[in-house]
Amino acid sequence: MRYLLNRIALLILTLLLISVVTFVITNILPGNVATMILGTRGSPETLAALEQKLGLNDPLLTQYGRWIWGMVQGDWGTSLRFKEPISQLMGQKMLASGIVVVMSLLIALVLAIPLGIIGAVKQNRWQDTLSSGTALLGISLPDFFWGIVLILLFSRGLGWLPSSGFVSPTEDFWLALKHALLPAIALGLSLMAHLTRMTRSAMLEVISQDFIRVCRAKGLGEGSIIFRHALRNAVAPVVTVAGLQLGYLFGSIIVVESLFNFTGMGWLTYQGLLNRDMPLIQATVFVIAAVFMLSNLIVDLIYTVLDPRIGLE
Amino acid sequence: MKSLLNPKGLIGLSLVTLFALMAIVAPIFIPEALSTKINVTARLMPPSFEHFFGTDQLGRELFYRVLLGAHTSLLIAVSAVTISILLGLPIGVLSGYFRGWVDHGLMRLVDTLLSFPAILLALAISAILGPNLQNTVLAIGIAFAPYLARIVRGETLKVSRLPYVEAARSQGASDLRIIRRHILPNIMAPVIVQATISVAFAILAEAGLSFLGLGTQPPTPSWGLMIQASRDYLDVAAWTALVPGIAVALAVLGLNMLGDVLREMLDPTFVSDA
Q1: Quick check: is B119 in a domain?
Q2: Domains in chain A, CATH or no CATH each
Q3: Is the pLDDT reported for residue B215 higher than 60?
Q4: Whole-prediction pTM value?
Q5: Could A148 and B245 be called an inter-chain contact, meaning their C-beta atoms sit closer than 8 Å?
Q6: Other C-beta atoms within 10 Å of B237: how many?
Q7: Chain B: residue nearest A265 by CA?
Q8: How far apart are CA A307 and CA A237, in angstroms?
Q9: CA-to-CA distance for B10 and A144, rounded, in angstroms?
Q10: Residue-range definition of the domain harbouring residue B92
Q11: Hey, is B55 helix, strand or coil?
Q12: Residue B135 lies in a domain
């Protein structure tokens, strides 16, 4: 309990720091929101009036305070590009990205764990070369390239899956899954590659330990040794890597969602960046970093469940 | 101790050498005009003897554009990683060497930056500074710096507790001298490994940024931009995506393989994970 409270305190502190960094990044340039709203058409007088109205002449610290207070109260500002309150814009987008991220995690785990086990059990044989080669290829190709290959193959070529757009699962569940599948695979492949490598090295380390030799000496079957004894001990570090790689995943959704025109958080962030929509950039960047922090906390908690030796101290 | 002389090491080294040569030699022998020359009569030509890698939607030779793209890509990636070392190395060394409140303060900053996905941070910096070649370098460099700082700090912590550092201190060596003569040379191996792998990630990041229009700007040949431009012609000219895609893949693959082997060579305790 004490551990959990500590972690939550640290989380709040880090969230505050994240908000400071986000605010600083979006205020590096002298060009401000008022100039962006008016474009080049505004006269100096209207510009000055708008700056006054938006409070852009206040000290940065005051502006930061106002922004963070707004965020806490659920007033996340209005998007310049969409002319809509950002908190409203985000709801549906979070759901969309959530679906894709969870699907890609599942795809990555389902592929990576068997591949990694095969690589370790058949070390230095052709099965190992195949598994390691697949992993290396997955790491080396950009996710948007996978995306394009998937579109060419499954959408343009075979016509099985749609190549763009998002459908809400409340409208049509199966269609929603179909739309999310290709982006999820494109996202999941590089994660799969990292996890395969991690599973393989964790398994290699575990199967060289004494207790596995004892299992062998007892005459246990190979299947029982690998799945009941070795895998259980190897899975904790794999989960940690999966958690760390989530950050990479949250970065990649920007590229992949834009490619598939899948209107989730990544797509929304991209729209903000492309249009230099500062309020939208601030909110989306902050939310993505915060979700990443939270998922790390969850991973740490799962870790203690998987490996009871690590107490919640 | 393993050496570079195994299939993986040799393939990695050859690929990296090939791309490094391409990056250095291509701009000397291929005038930029050749890669930007628009030829409306030869649009979207498939690869053939006449058009080695095929042509793009403006009839530009993909062969030249891929070769010059290697220059853009490696120039950006290597410069960005240099910046991340320039930023990350001092932070990591100061943190690991002095510990205490210096460490606490700097690591809070580093951890905060680490809670932003690197590509998101790079995209945001590039979008706000305005996308161009220099800002792409800066954005990727800043986004990668905290990872390097973390690794350098860990190594410095380890090295600065070793007896020879104690010995140097007891002889009255100054902090600066200890850092320069004893710490830096002994943390270089992991820094080199991380730098090699970072160049691979930086190539991917540059391609991603350019793909989104927030990195290298046209008409500079860039692999990411070429893939971006190919999106509208996938049905009729898949090679316009595949050619630059394969270039990215081979460059990154080579760096990753080299990085893996270097890591196994320089860190004997490391269990191979590929």
Answers
A1: yes
A2: 2-73 (no CATH), 87-306 (1.10.3720.10)
A3: yes
A4: 0.85
A5: yes
A6: 20
A7: B120
A8: 10
A9: 28
A10: 7-266
A11: strand
A12: yes
